[in-house]
Design brief:
By secondary structure, the chain is of the alpha/beta class. The protein has helices at about 10-20, 40-50, 65-75, 85-90, 110-115, 160-165, 190-200; strands at about 1-5, 25-30, 55-60, 80, 95-100, 120-125, 150, 170-175. Helix 1 (about 10-20) runs parallel beside helix 7 (about 190-200) and helix 2 (about 40-50) packs parallel to helix 3. The protein is globular and about 40 Å long. The structure holds the ligand O=C(O)c1ccccc1N[C@@H]1O[C@H](COP(=O)(O)O)[C@@H](O)[C@H]1O. Pathway: Amino-acid biosynthesis; L-tryptophan biosynthesis; L-tryptophan from chorismate: step 3/5.
């Protein structure tokens, strides 16, 4: 079971991630509406502190090709794309894409399956990063292939095992559910518990 810890914003968060060793760490970019949004300079300096076993993901909404290139220049391994995605961005030569779907755009799933630049999917609730979940039965009939099938949206250390059992994803993705009580950074115990719990359902 792959685990992605999203919404990393500080050196403190990086220490937690390095100690807990998820498979991926996500950093929100080019989306000032999010409290987790980072400048390219900050993202680059945080990625440089990341353990080499943890892959970095730029988490974006409707990015331009220039922004994909900026993320590549920062040193990211992947780009996660919510919202709209143009043909130039989908076939970009810089970063492999993790395509995020929300509950209202699942009908576009088939059109992305054949794209070799898309290496995985994240299925999320309507409002990304809101800590809200959705009806997982909507994913029941989606075909599985060799691309990473990741579940997100309102997961937390208490619900992740149930989610893994019900959906049988390749990976789980969390942001709000492992934040500290102030909501301004990650909580070591919650991140650790989330990862142990997710992997225990393998
Ligand atoms: O976290 C954000 O603010 C965010 C902003 C823009 C795009 C995605 C964002 N978050 C992603 O949403 C999912 C689920 O988050 P949660 O666990 O429900 O809080 C995850 O992939 C986040 O990276």
């Amino acid at each position: 079971m792959k685990v992605k810890i999203c919404g990393i914003t500080s050196a403190e968060d990086i220490k937690i991630v390095n100690a807990c060793e998820p498979d991926f760490a996500g950093f929100v970019m080019f989306f000032p509406k999010s409290k987790r949004n980072l400048s390219p300079e900050t993202a680059k300096s945080l990625i440089e502190m990341l353990d080499k076993n943890v892959l970095s993901v730029a988490v974006t909404v409707s990015p331009t090709l220039e922004q994909v290139k900026t993320a590549y220049d920062c040193g990211f391994d992947y780009i996660q794309i919510h919202g709209e995605v143009g043909g130039d961005v989908l076939s970009n030569p810089y970063l492999k894409v993790i395509r995020a779907f929300n509950v209202s755009d699942l009908e576009k799933f088939e059109e992305y399956r054949m794209n070799p630049n898309i290496v995985g999917y994240v299925f999320d609730a309507h409002e990304p990063g809101s800590g809200k979940t959705f009806d997982w039965t909507m994913l029941e009939n989606l075909p599985r292939d060799d691309k990473l099938f990741m579940l997100a949206g309102g997961l937390n250390p208490e619900t992740v095992a149930k989610a893994v059992k019900a959906v049988k994803p390749d990976g789980v993705d969390v942001s709000s559910g492992v934040e500290n009580s102030n909501g301004n950074g990650k909580d070591f115990e919650k991140v650790k518990k989330f990862i142990i719990s997710a992997r225990s359902e393998n």
